[in-house]
TrEMBL record, chain A:
Name under which the protein is recorded: CheY-P phosphatase CheC
GO BP annotation list: chemotaxis
Listed EC numbers: 3.-.-.-
Cross-referenced PANTHER family: PROTEIN PHOSPHATASE CHEZ (PTHR43693:SF1)
Keyword vocabulary terms for this entry: Chemotaxis, Hydrolase
Organism: Anaerotignum propionicum DSM 1682
Automatic annotation (TrEMBL), chain B:
GO BP annotations, alphabetical order: chemotaxis
EC number: 3.5.1.44
PANTHER family: CHEMORECEPTOR GLUTAMINE DEAMIDASE CHED-RELATED
Function field: Probably deamidates glutamine residues to glutamate on methyl-accepting chemotaxis receptors (MCPs), playing an important role in chemotaxis.
Residues annotated as transmembrane: none
Catalytic function, reaction form: L-glutaminyl-[protein] + H2O = L-glutamyl-[protein] + NH4(+)
Protein name per UniProt: Probable chemoreceptor glutamine deamidase CheD
Keywords for this protein: Chemotaxis, Hydrolase
SUPFAM superfamilies for this protein: CNF1/YfiH-like putative cysteine hydrolases (SSF64438)
CDD domains linked to this entry: CheD
Length: 208, 161
């Protein structure tokens, strides 16, 4: 069996993907806790297949300002990993790393920006490592790229990347929670359809 | 009248005499406003990709610059606009991330802008103002009562264009 659209995934495939996301997010949460020396918990990841406008609303609306770090996955498994931090979470990172809190997103200087990029990179790598080990698929990660801007503009990047193939987008979305849920950040995996088939085959989902 | 009409991604909306068309947070996508100042018919299309592939089964023409702009012109003509009177204002086409080596599509924002310009040139519609490129998202508002465009973006002054 092979899917040509995200919507064709059955319940079993989605469960499997949620499980993968859960292991990846768990690993990343541990890495984040260690990096920030703080207690970070995670939510059970959600696998969502949505239209372009829906996915942006799901993540907080088009004009929400977020800090985003994007990494391309290449090799046997390709796609995009995005780590989105909202303002409060960014401040936790600065506080824990003794960089001092900021008042506005505009106040982020070079040192703070590279701190976010570095923390995000650690989190994305540990997620990808866990997925890679679990499925024995090799995943190469690109150099991280960072932007602080409107969520809608940021999400246009993966949408456009898959725009010729699909009208929907699939996110495996894991949340990190600090201080009992007041402050969250999202780690999102967006595999392309070819890689999704490869992964699900490898995990035996399509071998019935 | 302060009617606001939201234009989604890969979507098109038009209105006559009154109302403001708005599309949120254009990243690498391009927002194209077309306007007939005499009939006061205005339309906004939010395109994602430069060209529709040949033999594509994709039903949504508004996703692509070439088919999206042409379909918009047809709709406007039905509602009383004259093609020879149309003017265009465009915004967007940013490069949100400075990705070393580039993504699989390269600088798609730039390609979107070029395809929009080409299509408008082929249709004989002048671009009277544009706010394109850069590395930030833009929310685009277009007022169909007077043809005025307005852009908001993060950490920058509002632009009237």
């Amino acid at each position: 069996m092979k899917i040509s659209k995200y919507e064709e995934m059955n319940g079993f495939a989605i469960d499997m993907l949620r499980e993968i996301g859960s292991i990846g997010t768990g690993n990343a949460a541990t890495a984040l806790s260690n990096t920030l020396s703080a207690k970070i918990s995670m939510s059970l990841p959600e696998v969502k297949i949505m239209g372009y406008n829906q996915v942006i609303d799901f993540l907080g609306g088009p004009e929400k300002i977020v800090s985003a770090v994007l990494v391309h996955m290449t090799g046997e498994f390709s796609g995009i990993m995005l780590y989105l931090l909202d303002f409060d979470f960014v401040n936790i990172v600065f506080e824990r790393l003794s960089l001092g809190k900021i008042e506005h997103f505009e106040d982020i200087d070079e040192i703070r920006a590279s701190a976010i990029a570095e923390v995000s990179n650690i989190i994305i790598s540990s997620y990808a490592n866990a997925v890679s080990q679990l499925s024995s698929i090799s995943i190469n990660l690109s150099v991280p790229a960072m932007a602080i801007n409107m969520l809608g503009g940021i999400m246009s990047v993966p949408m456009i990347e898959y725009g010729y193939v699909t009208d929907t987008i699939m996110v495996v979305d894991g949340k990190f929670i600090y201080n009992g849920g007041e402050m969250t950040s999202n780690l999102i995996m967006l595999p392309d359809i070819k890689s999704l088939n490869f992964l699900l085959n490898k995990l035996g989902v399509f071998n019935e | 009248m302060n009617k606001e009409i939201a234009v989604g991604i890969a979507d098109m909306k038009f209105t006559r005499m009154e109302g403001r068309l708005i599309t949120y947070a254009l990243g690498s996508c391009v927002g194209v406003c077309l306007y007939d100042p005499i009939a006061k018919v205005g339309a906004m299309v939010h395109i994602m990709l430069p060209q529709r592939l040949e033999n594509s089964a994709d039903a949504n023409v508004y996703k692509f610059a070439d088919t999206g702009i042409r379909a918009t012109i047809k709709k406007m003509e039905v509602f009383g606009a004259l093609k020879r009177r149309l003017i265009a204002k465009i915004a967007g086409g940013a490069k949100m991330f400075d990705i070393p080596g580039g993504g699989s599509l390269g600088n798609i924002g730039q390609r979107n802008i070029e395809s929009v310009r080409n299509t408008l040139r082929e249709e004989g519609i002048p671009i009277i103002s544009e706010e394109v490129g850069g590395n930030f998202a833009r929310t685009l508002v277009f007022d169909c009562s007077n043809g005025q465009g307005n852009i908001r973006s993060f950490g920058r002054k509002e632009i009237i264009f």
